[in-house]
Amino acid sequence: MGLRKKGTRNPPVLSQEFILQNHADIVSCVGMFFLLGLVFEGTAEASIVFLTLQHSVAVPAAEEQATGSKSLYYYGVKDLATVFFYMLVAIIIHATIQEYVLDKINRRMQFTKAKQNKFNESGQFSVFYFFSCIWGTFILISENCLSDPTLIWRAHPHSMMTFQMKFFYISQLAYWFHAFPELYFQKTKKQDIPRQVVYIGLHLFHITGAYLLYLNHLGLLLLVLHYFVELLSHMCGLFYFSDEKYQKGISLWAIVFILGRLVTLIVSVVTVGFHLAGSQNQNPDAITGNVNVLAAKIAVLSSSCTIQAYITWNLITLWLQRWIEDSNIQVSCMKKKRSRSSKKRTENGVGVETSNRVDCPPKRKEKSS
């Protein structure tokens, strides 16, 4: 389904402004190209690689897991094609939310340009984090990870995933890859691009690491915790943009943020410790999914600790900047009040002096007389 942004003027075809205004339509046409490939017998096999999950293995009924899935999946090169197609889907969904939801709210609230950019960013992330939390929690419940937490580090076989688990990771990778072209489509400021690139890159790094090392359940649990905290952050931002009286909600989010970081560290250390400790009879092999090697222990734990420290440091610097800005605003307000009071005093003093001068004749006239 094509999406067309309403504009006051029609830019030249294939110009930069034309691409920015109609990028959802262009991406929709590319997606329809893969869908039409299913119609023809010669291209159906190639189109299926982009549309459906690949690298599946049929599991006999005697070896089925408790989830009851008939097929298990592993990762491979064909996953790149699937990620590419769902990246196009993410771009279309992003444009739909922007045009039919966020733009209408912006016109009604009449935000400034700076607030409008922040509102759009928080709105897009809030929708993504909300559905990801619900989806991830559903997978954890359906695979009995919440009722039996030991499945997080003793899931077997190590090198296999269920359909819903693999589709979740494919969707996550597609979403975060789509964020790179969105920097261009949304006309992100140059000074904000490095921050956004780091933010996107960190998510891709950790999601890809959990996917390739078959730490699927651990990665899913940590993602749900992380997305829940980020969801609260952006929801507080949305309420704050609508009315500044909700600033107390931001302080409440800071407490939840710190608790979320602590829980994430504890879960990472405990899960990775039990998973990588494993059985001494198993042969460590990172290729088959048994990453019980010293390098994997150091990489996973250091990566988890580093990202938590980085996010916490960003929070501290953000709050310091806000505190400095608020203090500067208060100081400037106090100076304005003092200057106004001093002006009133001087005006009152000048009025008294002029009235006295009117009653008494000037000295020069006395000398002349």
Number of strands: 2
Shape: flat
Unreliable stretches, pLDDT < 50, 5 or more residues?
A: 1-6, 351-369
Termini gap: 98 Å
DSSP helical segment count: 12
Which secondary-structure class do the elements indicate? Answer: mainly alpha
Features:
369 residues; mainly alpha; 2 domains; two-stranded antiparallel sheet; 73% helix; flat; disordered C terminus
Walkthrough of the structure:
This protein has a two-stranded antiparallel sheet with strand order 1-2. The N terminus and C terminus are likely disordered. Helices cover 73% and strands 2% of the residues. The protein folds into two domains: 40 residues, no CATH class; 247 residues, no CATH class. Helix 2 runs antiparallel to helix 4 and helix 10 runs antiparallel to helix 11. It contains twelve helices and two strands; from the N terminus they run H-H-H-E-E-H-H-H-H-H-H-H-H-H. It is flat. The protein has 369 residues and is mainly α.
Give the topology, please.
Layout: H1 16-21, H2 23-36, H3 41-51, E1 56-58, E2 71-73, H4 79-109, H5 113-142, H6 151-154, H7 163-185, H8 193-212, H9 216-242, H10 247-277, H11 294-359, H12 363-368
Antiparallel strand pairs: 1-2
Helix pairs in contact: 2-4, 4-5, 4-7, 5-7, 5-9, 7-8, 8-9, 9-10, 10-11
